[in-house]
Fold this sequence. Notes:
Layout: E1 2-6, H1 11-22, E2 26-31, E3 50-54, E4 67-70, H2 77-80, H3 84-105, E5 108-114, H4 141-161, E6 165-170, E7 173-174, H5 185-195, E8 199-202, E9 208-210, E10 212-213, H6 214-226, E11 234-236, E12 241-243, H7 244-254, E13 261-264, H8 279-285, H9 293-307
Parallel strand pairs: 1-2, 1-4, 2-3, 4-5, 5-6, 6-11, 7-10, 8-13
Antiparallel strand pairs: 9-12
The protein binds nicotinamide-adenine-dinucleotide and uridine-5'-diphosphate.
The site of uridine-5'-diphosphate has 14 residues, from α5 and β8.
Amino acid sequence: xxxxxxxxAGFLGSHLCERLLGQGExxxxxxxxxxxxxxxxxxxxxxxxFELMRHDVVDPFKVEVDRIYxxxxxxxxxxxxxxxIKTVKTSVMGAINxxxxxxxxxxxxxxxxxxxxxGDPEVHPQPESYRGNVNPIGLRACYDEGKRCAETxxxxxxxxxxxxxxxxxxxNTYGPRMLPNDGRVVSNFIVQALRGEDLTIYGDGSQTxxxxxxxxxxxxxxxxxxxxQTVGPVNIGNPVEFTxxxxxxxxxxxxxxxxxxxxxxxxSDDPMQRKPDISLAQKVLGWTPNIELSEGLxxxxxxxxxxxxx
Length: 310
Ligand code: NAD
Ligand code: UDP
């Protein structure tokens, strides 16, 4: 089995490369290294089944593969808002290029969509049937609407051209190989606590998220690709919900030091609550995440300690 992973040198992509190589598959990792790093996959370079290719998904490409995981897209608000027009291009033109390839070579293709398609949800927890509450002209729209349009393209290629698609909607996921300057909340809090800096809560910290450890997430992604019961979309994430203040307190409980909690302005359109309804994933994938936040943090903190040279 030959698999193309776009965005394969990023946080999730590098774990996916590692898992598939471990199963004896051939992996072609494509990345433009915007938020991905060569060192995320450096330990895989000696494997003869692994190939790394610098390429931007916005530009067309031709390769012979059986499976495509389309992960290329910056995921952190800081990074996807850095060049919002490019973010839309990456999601939309990247999806068109990947789907065109899948159609040409008959590959099965999975889209890494996101809980952001639900925007600031008015239905809680969010089932796949909820159509969302996204501001189409806000600062997060380049990511949210880009990902929504990518889902549209996946389903149109499926209906019009019989492309064999799978779509997962990923909820907040964390773990080793996130960038220390990624800007997402788990990495920010751990890095701040390790440096003895104050933890920056945006708003009053009462907004909620549900955090999934990367190993659980990768398992669900592969299971979605390899099952035949549904094309999706399938929510994947950990349904245990925390306020951002609770997360900050948990991190401070694990990393001793002088850090305190400080408040900063809440960015615009920041969703107030988020928690996946994972009943579909439980039914069709036979999957439930089993790494709870405390254990996941214990597995993530040493990685950041090493990154910071502490
Ligand atoms: P990440 O930023 O670490 O990885 C994204 C990868 O895509 C990086 O390696 C980056 O260099 C690459 N990339 C970006 N633009 C590209 C382009 N134009 N051409 C080629 N490569 C490009 O983020 P991640 O957390 O690993 O996210 C991976 C995917 O999963 C993304 O599509 C993201 O939207 C989705 N997702 C992640 C989460 C999460 O919590 N981690 C949640 C929802 C969805
Ligand atoms: N957040 C925070 N402090 C930080 C970074 C993020 O309070 O240093 C908040 C952010 O406002 C949001 C939540 O944590 O409410 C999750 O943010 P993240 O960027 O990780 O992901 P997303 O908003 O895309 O779920």
